[in-house]
Amino acid sequence: MAYRNFDPHFDDDLTLLSDTLEEILASSGDPADQKYIELKMRAEQALDDVRARVSRASDNYYYRAKQAVYRADDYVHEKPWQGIGIGAAAGLVIGLLLRR
């Protein structure tokens, strides 16, 4: 799965959606109606599936970020002067951008 265009507000939107769905499921429909019971079960299963997928995606992003940090740390330990040069160049670029 590709998550290149991941919206940082996606988690907030999903939380709002799941909270709203849970509230609707808890408060609407006739509990004796068989169609309502089936619909509620399908909605609860869909909500659980979405939560599981989002959790896996979140874990995947955390793992990737952690690996990138470890690679950067290893690189700086192997080539400290190049690391200092890259840090200084990045600081200069960020400083110039912030000055504007």
UniProtKB/TrEMBL annotation:
Entry GO CC: plasma membrane
Protein keywords: Cell inner membrane, Cell membrane, Membrane, Transmembrane, Transmembrane helix
Domain of life of the source: Bacteria
Transmembrane segments: 80-98
Membrane topology classification: Single-pass membrane protein
Gene Ontology terms, MF aspect: ribosome binding
Sequence ranges assigned to domain DUF883 in this UniProt record: 11-59, 72-98
Statement: the UniProt record of this protein carries the keyword NAD: no
Similarity remark: Belongs to the ElaB/YgaM/YqjD family.
Protein name: Protein ElaB
Organism: Pluralibacter gergoviae
Lineage of the organism: Bacteria, Pseudomonadati, Pseudomonadota, Gammaproteobacteria, Enterobacterales
